[in-house]
Amino acid sequence: MSDPGGHLTVSSREAPSGSLSLRRGRVRLRTLIWLRWIAIIGQTVAVFVVYIGLGYDLPLVLCLLAIGASVALNAWAVLVLPSTQLLSDRQAAFYLGFDITQLALLLYLTGGLENPFALLFLAPVTISASMLNPKTTVALGVLVFVLVSGLAVAHLPLPWRGDEQFTFPLTYRIGLWGALLMGIGFTAAYARRVAAEAERMGQALAATQLVLAREQRFAALGGLAAAAAHELGTPLATIRLVATELAREIPQDSPHGEDIALLSSQVERCRGILGRLSERPDGDDAVFARQSFSALLEEVTAPYRGAGLSIAVQIEGDALSAEPVLWRQAEIVHALASLMENAVDFAYAHVVVKGAYDAQSVTISLLDDGPGFAPDILSRLGEPYVTSRPSNARRAGASPSDPAQEHEGMGLGFFISKTLLEHTGGEVRFGNHLTRLGSGQTVAAGGRGAMVSVTWARELVEASSLSLAVGAPAG
Fold first, then answer.
1. Cβ atoms of 106 and 156 closer than 8 Å
2. Domain range for residue 457?
3. Per DSSP, what are the bridge partners of residue 372?
4. Mean pLDDT of the chain
């Protein structure tokens, strides 16, 4: 259990991409058109306020021509292209590059970096960092660097009153240049980081929803099997009755006697099969949806016994509290099974599942004698795509064609398990241990042993008599 990658058993068609890069084609043309209209209105208002309202001298015609270029591009985009079009990175880079160049031209005409509106260089780069791939953002960043550096040394005078000229000292202008570039770089990096994190969380949550949907389908299959057994019971009883009557009326030495006997035996076989199906717990039945605390631990560990490891279950309870009877929630069973599988994969010889309960809480801990969690990922366990498992690692005995193997090493297993357990109200803790594993079993040489512990408030998971009256929780 030294790796948080876990086992995400989803098919290659269902699984989300493990890539951390942002998806392409996420910017709609309509978005850039509206942003450019806002910029055009703002630029026009600023130019006329400075020229007419403040009476400052500036090259009005040239400024309006620069603004007109943006109007022409927007008009062409509206008339020729569908506004709902998703732009490729190259197309989006063209539009954003145009906006950067147009802004640089306006600033050249109105004082360069001394113009406070130079801060607007942040907008296109931030949009690119949030939506486009890193290469496009770097290319736009280089364009901004070249234009900002050029404006720092070459530009028309800042518009001012009459014949007065307002000039900043050289040191201050250098400071403006450096502050603007650093601000653009920091804002772009910050936006990129936030967008990437949101993308990763979105992909990981989609995988979690996929697992939940699968568990619900499995539960539905169980209910369907029970319903089929119930519905088929009546016609099978009729067939059995008719076969019995025929057996009484047909002499034993009749050539049809063996056929009637065979028919009766096959009816009994069908009844036995349907009887076993009807014994499957129905998730909507408040009685079958319950299980004891020890039964839950046994269900989690049973599939891994006989795998060449020592698997022990230990239960410690408060003497004043009875063993809890829990709702059987698919989220808890799946999450604990995934964590158990991970522990078995990395244990050297021993895995211990410890259960503890008292009047207030219920705790389940999984401990192994493997190498433990690596210190550099321990603090980040439970985050999506945090893993130290090689992407080509395969479980012992697993088929090379097993689609589940394609997704190991993505770091989604622990994220999904932690999300499911927290969804049920559990508090999940990860760590390494150096204690004995019970019955004199110690951590193997060189190993630290990994530990995953989940604690619930008892009232959240216990199937009390009151909750029986209103039904099991939805989970």
1. no
2. 290-470
3. none
4. 76
Number of domains forming the structure of the chain: 3
Q: Per-residue pLDDT tens for 132-172? A: 888 888 899 899 999 999 888 888 888 877 666 777 788 88
**DSSP symbol at 119:** G
What's the CA gap between 142 and 126, in Å, rounded? 14
| CA separation for the pair 294, 51 (Å, rounded) | 82
Query: Which candidate, 82, 166, 93, places its Cα nearest to that of 129?
Result: 93
Say how many C-beta atoms besides its own lie within 10 A of residue 310's C-beta.
15
Same domain, 348 and 202: no
* Residue 271 sits in the same domain as residue 317: no
Pairwise CA distance, residues 71 & 84, whole Å: 19
Backbone angles phi, psi at 435, to 5 degrees: -90, 170
- List CB contacts of 53: < 8 A, sequence separation 6 or more: none
The residue among 331, 378, 355, 342 whose CA lies nearest residue 453 is 355
Residue 396 shares a structural domain with residue 455: yes
Q: Are residues 263 and 200 in the same domain?
A: no
Residues 298 and 444 reside in one and the same domain:
yes
Q: What is the CATH number of the domain that holds 320?
A: 3.30.565.10
Whether 129 is covered by a domain: the verdict is yes
Are 333 and 239 in a shared domain?
no
Percent composition of the chain: helix, strand, coil (DSSP 3-state, to 5): 55, 10, 35
Q: What is the tens place of the pLDDT at every residue in 312-362? A: 999 998 878 888 888 888 788 888 988 898 888 888 888 999 999 998 999
Same domain, 157 and 230: no
Written as six digits, the tokens of 215 are 């568990």
Count CB atoms within 10 A of the CB of residue 126.
18
Parallel, antiparallel or unpaired: strands 350-357 and 310-317: parallel
Q: Are residues 386 and 463 in the same domain?
A: yes
The helix/strand/coil state of 327 is strand
Q: Is residue 19 part of a domain?
A: no
